[in-house]
Amino acid sequence: MGLNSKAYLAADLLAKTILKKPTRDGYGDGVVEAGKRDPNIVVCCADLTESTRSLAFKKAFPERFVQFGVSEQSLAAIAAGMALAGKVPFISSYAMFSPGRNWEMIRTNIALNNVNVKIVGAHSGVSVGPDGATHQAVEDMAITRVIPRMTVVAPCDVHESKKATIAAAAFVGPVYLRFTREKTPVFTTAKTPFKIGRAEVFRFGKHVTIVACGPLVHNALLAAAQLAKKGIDCEVIDNHTVKPMDAKTIIASAKKTRRVVTVEEHQVQGGMGSRVAEILAASLPVPMEFVGMQDCFGESGNPDELIEHFGMGVSAIMKAVQKVMKRT
Amino acid sequence: MAHAHDKDIERLEEIANDIRQSIIRMLLAAGSGHSAGPLGMADLFAALYFHILHHNPKKPFWEERDRFILSNGHICPVRYAAMAHAGYFPKKELLTLRTFGTRLQGHPEREKLPGVETTSGPLGAGLAQAAGLAYAARLDGKKWRTYCLTSDGEQEAGLHWEAALFAGKYRLANLTAFVDRNNIQIDGMTEDIMPIEPLRAKWEAFNWHVIDCDGNSMQAIIDAVHEAKAIFEKPTVVLLHNVPGRGVSFMEGKFEWHGIPPNAEQAAIALRELRTLGGRIRAEHE
Predict the structure, then answer these.
(1) Is there a cis peptide before residue A62, judged by omega within 30 degrees of 0?
(2) Which residues of B touch A (CB under 8 A)?
């Protein structure tokens, strides 16, 4: 057991000196690449061009960049109109405001209307840090995954973010892409496989399955490495596509380990872990523990201390694994 | 759209009357739905589908068609009636309005009925989608125009004014909006519920060209659209001052008729009034 060699993870995966970059950078690179491939791609932004990283597209294709100002509701609804005319709009803002503030436009004007708009939510999670709870979206996956026809992707690092952006551009239908502000470990590589709807097993193990999404996948791998020293062998799944979720991979792993811990920087209610529970409850009920925000709001602080404070750090994941091991 | 002559105006007025009669029959069959708005807007829909829009009922997805976005989706009986009369689908299908399995949903859905450009009903969202269409058309150098009808109650919605700001900034001259200014909304008169006046000044402040228009005058509607097409530096909004429930005496001007259908007796009276133009002519089927 150990790392999946076919996941082509970074060699310095466990090193403290690992390179760190924000996942939003991957979106910035990816949307420029997608723009080169498809002239119908337009990028719409609500006054957050630099911090969402839509700026890269604006520089590359100024005629296909549309500035909205602080107008997230019309950001979604006007983009729906552009999509009706054959455009492929990427709409970018902070996750708190899009899909937060404009949820009904996303639900009705984009999803029910069945038009090809990509929703780019930057600054998700408490790792937004000093800005505080008003700007820390920890409900966004719940409110998007509940919408019919919506695809929800939460990439784990800058490489996966770029791949997810390019894949979303080629995918026909509404997609929510979830990115983060803070620099986080670059632990996958350009060769790491990525496909929307397919979870990747990053580490093989036999005692417990850790299903994670977003940059916390790295914390899950660190926890697994420490637990291995204690004789606990964890399987770690990068479950980037929260909807439609890869039930096959999750069930196959749970069949082997019979115990599951989910890890997400999001409310445990209604999030990625909840979907894992829905899948397992229906076909393979096993003991589960849920690492994430426990029905509370975030607050100001630096990202690392907030992740620790809210119980999503490496030690919290290790505790959850040890707890689920004791359950039968 | 060519200039309308007197006989064209007469023909369009007759079509508007036919559309009103269809609306009454549809609402009676459905047993639910909105009466006042659709009747008030029948003149606009006759003008749109039989004179203004560049469209082909046999080819609803024709790329070069003008786009017409109905933002206040709840008045869809008038759109469905106008579409059926124009030849998009058989008129007998109108009686399936709001029933299980129908293409004529209670609020219109793009995916259900070809020719419905967007799914609508939640108020305030139509102008935004119309602005998106107009922006994309200009980006691609397309000649087709976008029209959008909004209710006056929608002038209370934040999203609507975000879209107005956007269209004003980007000078979307290929976009023409209409406001169904009938002064009523579900809970009462607009100026009691949440005043929207001075409406002309608001739109002008958002950098739109504004035309006040008698929304129940065929000639005035057509003249207003001609004027809108001649304005090249900004989008145009036509404020259609009209009588809700137009053509049916006991519905005219009554907000109570916003969200309810006529019963059989009321429908019979309404149809008789429409057939006789309020008693001015003899009905064919006395």
Answers:
(1) no
(2) 67, 69, 109-111, 117-119, 121-122, 125, 128-137, 139-140, 142, 158-159, 162-163, 165-166
Stated length of chain B = 286
Residue B103, pLDDT above cutoff 50:
yes
Pair type for strands A260-267 and A241-243? unpaired
> Order of strands across the sheet with B175-181?
B67-70, B146-151, B175-181, B236-241, B209-214
Task: Return d(Cα B155, Cα B123) in angstroms, integer.
Answer: 9
pLDDT in tens, B120-136: 999 999 999 999 999 99
Name the residue among A63, A87, A109 with its Cβ closest to that of B129: A109
Q: What is the DSSP letter of B48?
A: I
> Has residue B286 got a pLDDT over 80?
no
Taking a C-beta distance cutoff of 8 angstroms, is the pair B20, B247 a contact? yes
Once rounded to an integer, what is the mean pLDDT over residues B222-228?
Answer: 97
**Tens digits of per-residue pLDDT, A150-165?**
999 999 999 999 999 9
Question: Comparing C-alpha atoms, which of B147, B122, B38 is closest to residue B82?
Answer: B38
Instruction: Write the DSSP string, A268-295.
Output: STTSHHHHHHHHHHHH----EEEEEE-S
What is the average pLDDT across B43-65? 98
**pTM exceeds cut of 0.90:** yes
Q: State the DSSP H helix or E strand holding residue B35, giving kind and residue range, or none if neither.
A: none
Across the range B95-111, mean pLDDT stands at 96
Q: Please tell me whether residue A65 adopts helix, strand or coil conformation.
A: strand
Q: How far apart, in Å, are the Cα atoms of A230 and each of A101, A253, A318, A322?
A: 45, 21, 11, 10
Distances (CA, A) of A44 to A167, A182, A189, B41: 18, 22, 29, 34
CA–CA separation, B183 vs B244, rounded Å? 8
Share of chain A above pLDDT 70, in %: 100
Taking only residues 83 to 102 of chain A, the set having a beta carbon closer than 8 angstroms to any beta carbon of chain B reads 83-87, 89
Contact at CB, B129 and A78, closer than 8 angstroms: yes
DSSP string, A211-262: EE-TTHHHHHHHHHHHHHHTT--EEEEE--EEES--HHHHHHHHHHHS-EEE
d(CA A200, CA A236) in angstroms, rounded, equals 9
Mean pLDDT (chain B) is 95
Chain B: give the shortest CA distance to residue A297, in Å.
27
Query: Widest CA span of chain B, in angstroms?
Result: 56
The answer on pLDDT for A272 being more than 50 is yes
Q: Does the pLDDT at position A84 exceed 90?
A: yes
Measured over the CA atoms of residue A263, residue A151, residue B132 and residue A113, the dihedral's sign is negative
pLDDT value at residue B49: 98
